[in-house]
Amino acid sequence: MTESTSSQPVLIDKFGRRVEYVRLSVTDRCDFRCVYCMSEEMEFLPREQVLSLEEIYNLAKSFTDLGVNKLRLTGGEPLVRKGVLGLIEKMGQLPAELLITTNGSQLPKMAKDLKRFGVDRLNISLDSLQRDKFQRLTRSDRLHQVLAGIDAACEAGFNGIKLNAVVLKGRNDDEVVDLVEFARDREIDITFIEEMPLGAITEHDRAESYCSSDEILEMLNQEYDLLSSTEKTGGPSKYYRMSDSRSKIGFISPHSHNFCGECNRVRVTVEGRLLLCLGNEHSMDLREVMRSHPGDNELLKQKLIESMDLKPERHYFDLEAEPQIVRFMNMTGG
Ligand code: SAM
Ligand code: SF4
């Protein structure tokens, strides 16, 4: 369904929700192997199956032509894709806020350029401040590089920086206060994410390692005076403020599906599959559209408009019955 407010068509689904936010996966590859995201021996896609940088740009442009005002690049690790800075420079000129989710490893060398090319805000993943735990969670010994990357990002002066921490019981749940202190010291935000059952992971039992947002909130309530914020994101985040800090604390609780009613987002996988809902398989093959009609952005836009009818009303996740969704997070674009 579409609606013309001015002369511009916009994206509206069957349930009247307007899609204004698109997350684009730039690559399925990564320099880390986080235990909740990838298996140790991942097989990555052959190059021809992955969207080219030009195809990603065409998609981003078509979405903004249809009123999308927020674009996020993610992956895999978006900043390890060769040539990504050129894509970012072009996307920085589109009339939309440009955001990147990154593991931070490339930020020591890239933070300044990202800011210069028009990236507005960064989400940087950081699950642990302790080298051994960081290494066990990410299967990489590059905590020092990530910390240097966060410092470089703070210096570069983005409009916002948010840390993302996936909390697993018995692994890093004892660090939630330390992570909040780290964010407070830098006056940046932090969000705690519940693990989602995406992809078959053998290394740990998700039902056992699951740590709910309520449990984290209870730990933090003992340390801080948390004030619930009414801020709405159209996503699964709920925010709290602290009376003595500019940092916000967020919680992403995908297991509670009460945010579906306000969902304003879609995702595009690295293979160009448009996913209308993170927890469902409803999708459209945009790579096929682009490769069978190269350069025909009008057709692409028409397909995007048609795809709105595929967006399901809500998602269901069940930790006991995994894996319901066989895609890994690095394919989906988290
Ligand atoms: N490589 C970048 C990074 O780590 O920030 C971007 C891609 S990563 C898939 C995006 C976010 O998804 C990260 O914050 C990561 O912690 C989170 N993530 C990955 N797998 C997850 C899972 N199974 N459940 C919840 N969050 C997950
Ligand atoms: Fe890589 Fe991000 Fe997945 Fe970790 S969460 S393996 S950094 S894509």
Label the overall shape: globular
Largest sheet: 12 strands, mixed
Task: Please give the order of strands in the largest beta sheet.
Answer: 9-10-11-8-7-6-5-4-3-12-13-14
Give a list of the ligands. S-adenosylmethionine, iron/sulfur cluster
- Looking at this structure, what is the CATH superfamily? Aldolase class I
How many domains make up the coordinates?
1
Number of helices: 11
Structural class assignment:
alpha/beta
Q: CATH top level?
A: Alpha Beta
Helical content, roughly?
Answer: 25-40%
Question: CATH architecture, please?
Answer: Alpha-Beta Barrel
Could you state the order of secondary-structure elements as H and E?
EEEHEHEHEHHEHEHHEEEEEEHHH
User: Ends: how far apart?
Assistant: 26 Å
**Overall pLDDT metric:** 90
Overall strand count? 14
CATH fold description: TIM Barrel
Rg estimate, integer Å: 19 Å
Overview of this structure, please?
With 334 residues, this protein is an alpha/beta fold. The protein has one domain: TIM Barrel. It contains 11 helices and 14 strands. β10 and β11 form a beta hairpin. α1 runs parallel beside α2 and α3 runs parallel beside α5.
Helix-strand blueprint:
Blueprint: E1 2-4, E2 9-11, E3 21-25, H1 53-65, E4 70-74, H2 84-91, E5 97-102, H3 107-116, E6 121-125, H4 131-138, H5 143-156, E7 160-166, H6 176-186, E8 189-193, H7 206-209, H8 213-221, E9 226-228, E10 237-242, E11 248-252, E12 265-268, E13 273-275, E14 283-285, H9 286-292, H10 297-307, H11 329-332
Parallel strand pairs: 3-4, 3-12, 4-5, 5-6, 6-7, 7-8, 8-11
Antiparallel strand pairs: 1-2, 9-10, 10-11, 12-13, 13-14
Helix pairs in contact: 1-2, 1-10, 3-5
Bound molecules: S-adenosylmethionine and iron/sulfur cluster.
